[in-house]
Amino acid sequence: MFRILFITSTRLGDAVLSTGLLQHLLRTHPDARVTVACGPVAAPLFERMPGRDRTLVMEKRRFDLHWLALWRRCVLRRWDLVVDLRGSAVSFLLPARRRVVMRGGRRPGHRTRHLAAVLGLVPPPQPVVWFSDADCDRADALLPPNGPLIGLGPTANWSGKVWPADRFVALFERIAAIMPGAVPVVFAGPGEAERAMARPVLDALPGAVDLCGRLSLPQVAACLSRCALFVGNDSGLMHLSAAAGTPTLGLFGPSRSSEYAPAGPRAAFVEAPGEPGIAPIAGLSVEDALRAATALLEPSATPRPVPVGAS
């Protein structure tokens, strides 16, 4: 049995982007048993992953003692491969036939390219998401059977990334005008802060399906996979949607699309005018977002590529 320890992010978006690397390892080592170490927010992402032995949830502790706790849980097992995307010292203190460690610090290019470089993969493997038949049944029970579903992700982990709620509403209304019967589906993470960000959109769209904080990540992925389009702020939900294969439009202001644009078979992004990574997201117009969204909805259209090969 080939044993892999895969240490990935505490943040959902980065963890989603690392799934392509995991999928590559599962294809390369079909008999592998994988232990995933990650933060509590990202942990449910791996529940349905084939070949998963266990998930070690790393709760942050003072003085970085969470790394000591991880070492204690892993040191008695001999690993065939340790993949450390956090650049920790723990990887060098575990018995392993081979270890690859991603160095820290910022660098140019898309995050998927940075991750792929750990194993020397070109081009970078695209993210994936795993969900079950039961998750699909749950999605079918929650979502209306008729009308194209338009997913909206009006939340983010930082207020600077959040496009104004009234523009999400206006964008949906413009999309509905060209897609008769369109149904808004509002996604958000758990907690009061996420619901507060989503509330203005839900209030303005009384026919919306409210999926804010109600589902597990695999269930969210199953619901996203049924959407004709997802439009959302730069967030973990945006990355999850793109990994699910849903046509996904990411909205960017003061975060870098060159590093964190959604990566998937039908993914694109639109940025606020101004210097990339600095421009206020309030400068992004409904018209620009609509133009990018309708391009994604055209079957023959080629989405704006994610710049994974940028140097």
Q: In order across it, which strands form the biggest sheet?
A: 8-7-6-9-10-11
Number of helices: 11
Q: Into which percentage range does the β-strand content fall?
A: 15-25%
Q: Cα distance, first to last residue? A: 38 Å
Helix percentage = 25-40%
Task: Give a quick account of the main beta sheet: strands, pairing sense, barrel closure.
Answer: 6 strands, parallel
As a whole number of angstroms, the C-alpha radius of gyration is 20 Å
Structural class: alpha/beta
User: Which architecture of the largest domain does the CATH hierarchy give at level 2?
Assistant: 3-Layer(aba) Sandwich
Which residues form runs of ≥5 with pLDDT under 50?
A: 301-311
Set down the secondary structure blueprint.
Elements: E1 3-7, H1 12-17, H2 19-28, E2 33-38, E3 52-57, H3 65-74, E4 81-84, E5 99-101, H4 111-117, H5 133-142, E6 149-153, H6 165-178, E7 183-188, H7 192-204, E8 209-212, H8 217-224, E9 229-233, H9 236-243, E10 248-252, H10 257-260, E11 267-271, H11 286-297
Parallel strand pairs: 1-2, 1-4, 2-3, 4-5, 6-7, 6-9, 7-8, 9-10, 10-11
Organism: Rhizosaccharibacter radicis
Keywords: Glycosyltransferase, Transferase
Protein name: Glycosyltransferase family 9 protein
